[in-house]
């Protein structure tokens, strides 16, 4: 095999391997966080420490960026207010809702509901007149039909568990099994995640508009992460007043904080940016529903979850709706089909309108 053919083969294979790793690591973060919550860690404690560490990691890169650009893109009060709102929606509210929902339900449900992001964003973009529906165009019909299908799948996932099709051998008295045995918790978790997805979609729309107005994305990302972290810290005494809950021990809770922040900031954003450059946004989007399968495997293996028929049906319907929306978006030649908006976490983002996951973490 010649050198050129070898390099061409590597360029085809490496993005696939990278996206597979990212998807697995995404779910590993959620699984570790869920395990930490099962051990008693509050969602607000994780969000505050995770965001604070992520912002600190971003700080030196932001300083280097500012020095190199020498104030090329001046900031105004209007832009700072936009960044403040982005931090409130994408960092503070979204993460509190997302991890709160995971605490009540599971990473599998969080992964399934996250695939509603393109559909939610599409609906909100229509409301704000950033998208138009033309029933004569196959792309518009696909996005509309896919949105309806994805939302229907999320409702099935949330409100219908059904019989177990795979049961773990873990003890029925384990904390996770006790929490998962209450259907009310499952529904509450699903509803919280759906609300979080709507907040995330609002963030996507505002981020897209802000990125077009202010092209310096590194500055934008750092500032809204900083604002979001400050907002979380300000809310934390009201959500978790128990001082003992804020004492991190060298256990699964500390591992969750460090692993989540380092993976989100150092690895994920860089790898996804490289994959977007090599293969484009549609290729990156194709891996999003795979996270549901990986979340199921990790939940069964490490958390003692059981797989229910309703979860399997709902996840399949959501994935079908997701791919339909993304196909319709790909048909729109004038608009990119996917945003590299980071979730379960990232720091460096590109900002087309519709994203596969709202990973707006630091």
TrEMBL record:
The keyword Transmembrane applies. GO terms for cellular component: membrane. Residues 19-156, 189-326 form the EamA domain. It is found in: Membrane. Residues 343-362 have a biased composition (Polar residues). One of its GO terms (molecular function) is transmembrane transporter activity. It is a multi-pass membrane protein. It comes from the Eukaryota. Keywords: Membrane, Transmembrane, Transmembrane helix. Belongs to the drug/metabolite transporter (DMT) superfamily. Plant drug/metabolite exporter (P-DME) (TC 2.A.7.4) family. This is WAT1-related protein.
């Amino acid at each position: 095999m010649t050198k050129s053919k070898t390099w061409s083969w590597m360029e085809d294979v490496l993005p696939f391997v990278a996206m597979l790793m990212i998807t697995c690591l995404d779910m590993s973060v959620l699984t570790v966080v869920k395990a930490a919550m099962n051990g008693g860690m509050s969602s607000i404690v994780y969000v505050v420490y995770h965001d604070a560490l992520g912002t600190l990691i971003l700080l030196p890169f932001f300083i280097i960026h500012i020095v190199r650009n020498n104030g090329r893109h001046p900031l105004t009060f209007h832009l700072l207010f936009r960044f403040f709102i982005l931090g409130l929606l994408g960092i503070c509210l979204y993460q509190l809702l997302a991890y709160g929902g995971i605490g009540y339900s599971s990473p599998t449900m969080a992964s399934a509901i996250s695939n509603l992001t393109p559909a939610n964003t599409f609906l909100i973009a229509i409301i704000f007149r950033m998208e138009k529906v033309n029933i004569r165009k196959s792309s518009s019909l696909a996005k509309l039909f896919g949105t309806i299908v994805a939302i229907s799948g999320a409702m099935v996932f949330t409100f219908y568990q059904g019989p177990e099709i795979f049961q773990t051998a873990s003890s029925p008295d384990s904390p996770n099994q006790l929490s998962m045995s209450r259907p009310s918790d499952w529904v509450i978790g699903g509803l919280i995640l759906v609300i979080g997805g709507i907040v995330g979609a609002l963030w996507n729309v505002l981020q897209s508009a802000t990125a077009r107005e202010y092209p310096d994305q590194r500055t934008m990302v750092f500032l809204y992460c900083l604002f979001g972290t400050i907002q979380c810290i300000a809310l934390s005494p009201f959500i978790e007043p128990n001082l003992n809950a804020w004492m991190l021990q060298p256990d699964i809770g500390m591992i969750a904080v460090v692993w989540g922040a380092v993976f989100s900031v150092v690895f994920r954003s860089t790898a996804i940016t490289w994959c977007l450059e090599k293969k484009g946004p549609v290729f990156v989007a194709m891996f999003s529903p795979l996270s549901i399968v990986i979340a199921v495997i990790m939940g069964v293996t490490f958390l003692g979850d059981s797989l229910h028929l309703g979860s399997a049906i709902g996840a399949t319907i959501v994935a079908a709706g997701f791919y339909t929306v993304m196909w319709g978006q790909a048909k729109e030649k004038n608009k990119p089909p996917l945003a590299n908006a980071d979730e379960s976490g990232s720091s460096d983002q590109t900002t087309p309108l519709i994203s596969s996951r709202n990973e707006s973490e630091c």
